[in-house]
Amino acid sequence: MKRKNVCGFEKVLPRILGICLLFVVSAFAWPWSSKSVAVDSAAIRDSLKREEFKELQREVDALARIRLQKADSLEKLEAEHWRKRYTETQLTEEHQVETRELDGRYSKLSTDLGRVNEEVLASKDITTDAEDKAKSDESAYENFNTQVKLAVEKSIGDVAGDYPVGMNDRMIRLKKAQNDVDGKNPNTLSAMREYLNDLLDRQKLTYTQSYGVEKTQVGSRPDVKVNRLRLGTVFLGEVALDGSADGLGEVQALLRSGALQGKVFEWNSSLPAEMAIGIRSAVNEASAKSAIVKVPLDVLQNKAVKNSISDSNELTWQEELQAFFKKGGIVMYPLVLVALFALLLCLERFLVLMLRGRLTPRFMKQVDALVSEKKYDEAAKLCFKKNTSLSMVLFAVLNKANEDREIAEKSLQEMLLWEQPRLERRMGLLAAMGSIAPLLGLLGTVTGIITLFTVITEVGTNDARVLAGGISEALVTTETGLVIAIPVMILHGLLSEKIEKLTSELYARSTSLLNKIFPKEG
Residue 74 contacts by C-beta under 8 Å, 6 or more apart in sequence? Predict the structure, then answer.
């Protein structure tokens, strides 16, 4: 663009110079003759035309050069264009080749991906089925382990009330089984094996018999050597070998206790003489390996042997009381506490009513005499010294004797509202103790009957007297609760009547005194 502007200026410049030269020549030639002027003008025009032609020639040459330059540039650009187009064509062909290769690979990969997806779905289905089966097996295993655990725990709970022979070995075996099922990785098969072995040993103990020398505790003597005869789980008798019982050997037998607390078997060495002789003879006959041994008691023990033995011994009243308390079970303790607390409340209320509710005629005569003489201050001091409910109520009236009747009545009402709750205090608690005692007794009875039926379910019985005996033991707490509640309610009634009588006396005496001091209202 700059080059074009310069060429245009060079084209105009000669013309401008020619015109200027023409004016200068005209100025100097003005006085000359017209012919010379015309010749010079023609020469000048020719000169200007030649200059203009030269200038035009130069412009044409410049334009030709520019055209040649533009043509060269255009040829170069066209060559560059074709070269780029050729390169682009090659790149397009290469791209098409690569695209076809990629399309082929993509098609192959799509096919492979579809096949892999199908395999993955099939694998997922197989995995899901395997997981469901594994969860089902795991749940079944856990249920089985839980059942074994519950069976082992029940057996451990039953051992304490079961036949005591071999109890230590059974507890060790069952504890091992319990540890196997309670572990972080439970060994259910091992626990099941120990549990079944325990059942087999218990079954074997039931249907076998044995005789031999053992170490046991006879009475309060530990580690005594005895001859022991066992017939299954229905009879176990021992005769001491230490020369006790006049050299014959002390005798003891394992008997059913019939207790409700789960202890079904107990050792008893306090046997009647006839029964002790019979057991000693049976053990001695067994040592001689006799074919038949006579046992001197009902081996099924359906006749409450323990109770009949215990009843044959005379008990002191302290022992009878202890036995009665023991029959009631754990509920007897709160019953005793209720009885003691109710007794303390009754004593406290009797003492309070005796001290606060004294109504002596001599005191009332003194007060009436002082009121008649209008010595209200002295009467008030006398009432204040006594410190009883009546004296404090009368003091409230006498203290306001110099005021009007309305103020005295308000003072009286305030003192009555203060004294009446003090007289009735803890009466509601005493009534609650009388109501709680039979409820606790009923609770003990229900608990005892539940325990009784639990023992019957586990051990079983075919003797109605055992069932009746268990129910009688369960009713001990109800009897105790009624024995406590009846006297408590009677004492509560007596105290309530005394409080009502004392309250009425307070109202009557205070109103009478108020009328004496203020005979007219207003």
Answer: none
